[in-house]
Amino acid sequence: LRYHLLGDFLSTVAIRKLHPPITYPTLEGSTVRLSIFFGKLKVNDATVVISDVLATDGIIHTIDKVLLLS
What we know:
The structure is a single chain. About 10% of the residues lie in helices and about 45% in strands. It starts with 11 loop residues before the first helix and ends in a 7-residue tail after the last strand. The longest helix is centred in the first third of the chain and has 6 residues, at about 10-15. The mean pLDDT is about 95. The protein is mainly β. The protein has a five-stranded antiparallel sheet.
């Protein structure tokens, strides 16, 4: 589960300001690749389908598949 979590509050605007594609560390210790493909935010090969949902402990981005460690 920690592979699905980043240690920062990153909105889609904040991610775009990082000029993807970039790699970003997860709480598990590995990295994920954040990129923009045809205007859509991608996490590895998953597409963000719901973004910027504010929660009490972070920002939630829903993706269309499970991330697997490579």
